[in-house]
Amino acid sequence: MKILQYLALILTLTPVVTFAQNTPSMVSIGERISIQSKVLDEERSIQVYLPPSYYYGDQSNFPVVYLMDGDYNFHYDTGLIELLSSVSEEIPEMIVIGISDKGAEKYRNYCKPTNGTEKSGDADRFMSFIEKELKPFVKQNYKASDYDILIGHSLGGLFATHYFMSNPSAFDAYIAIDPSLWWNDYKAVEDADSVFNGVKELKTQYFISLADTKGMGVMPFVGVLDKYFPHQKQWHFMHFPDESHNSVGLPTIKVALKKLFAGWAMNRDKFMALNGAEDLIDYFVELKTTYHTSFALPVGLLGNVVYYYRDKPTELDKLEAGIKEHFPASLNEFYVQKALLYFEKAEYDRAAEVYKMNVNLHPGSFKSYDGLAQVYKAKGDIKKAKEMSRKTIDMAKKAKVRQWQLNELEAHAESIAAGVSK
């Protein structure tokens, strides 16, 4: 009996530690879908990455990257593209289509050029699948612009190079990463010498890289390009002697995309050289024409520009007019930034007026709801602040914002609930 009493005492004094039952949730960077191909007579899978602002509105579209060997390369490519676009604003946001393989044997066959030799592959058939079925599917189902990029690595790079020589106008840019141009006794190099002979000008961009590998056939192919197009800027060779065949993809794509969209990044010196807001609009209108894409202006840049013109109402009016005419997808962000100017000067009624106007124009503007929540909080109306904060999170989830953005909005809601100024 004493032993039982002792155990009971121990259990009474010992704290009971419990752990919450956490239900794991998937962290996703895209979706996988299947389409039926009549050209290939089989079902094909693709992975689709959509950029962070994809669901913010319907007035913009996005360049599309088509990625060979998509299941293998999709994760690192999409992460790099999001870093370069929405995070650092060095390139525009893009859609990425990762083309899945159906096993190594079939993938190799579809990458090898169709040229009537004993080692001939079925690349032309796969090109037909991309042109007749995959591209139309993407254009029909996603907010895709008419600017397309094809990326291939190794045998995928051989495929991209064959595509470039066979149908250069099919893509606006081809990126061949350490391509296997050694295939079939360097047949691609031999073909290039006849394909480019007599061609005065390349009509599309072509990027080719080489790692620390030997015998890939890259240098002889570059020699052919240099022979026929010694002064043209449409082709680019990148050598990465410190990278292996498997690691060279990341630096190749980074350098290629930054070169391809070299005018996109707007640093301080470039901005200060412009003569006002109209010049800024004209600058990006030219880019929109060049890349035949209805861009939204880079968010960070737009916020900095609005702040720079905070004491120049004429320039702000010109900026607003230019955005309305040429970049309607950026009007929501413009009004958010304009309202923030009033908020920071404690002109809460004027800030609320702009936020409310923006909500009427853009019902899904979660940033405007968040702004209204901050206004009501600053004015001491916690009840309305909480209401707006709840709407903010609902709208943000509908817009499928990235988790870090949702974390920030939820932190705002907690701050409002606690009645703490921020």
UniProtKB/TrEMBL annotation:
Q: Which Pfam families match?
A: Esterase
Q: Where are the TPR repeats?
A: 332-365
Xref: InterPro entries? AB_hydrolase_fold (IPR029058), Esterase-like (IPR000801), Siderophore_Hydrolase_D (IPR052558), TPR-like_helical_dom_sf (IPR011990), TPR_rpt (IPR019734)
**Entry keyword Signal:** yes
Sorted alphabetically, the keyword list is:
Hydrolase, Signal, TPR repeat
Matching SUPFAM superfamilies: alpha/beta-Hydrolases (SSF53474), TPR-like (SSF48452)
Annotated signal sequence is 1-20
PANTHER family linked to this entry = SIDEROPHORE TRIACETYLFUSARININE C ESTERASE, SIDEROPHORE-DEGRADING ESTERASE (EUROFUNG)
Record family assignment? Belongs to the esterase D family.
For this entry, the protein name equals Alpha/beta hydrolase
Organism name: Fulvivirga kasyanovii
Lineage runs: Bacteria, Pseudomonadati, Bacteroidota, Cytophagia, Cytophagales
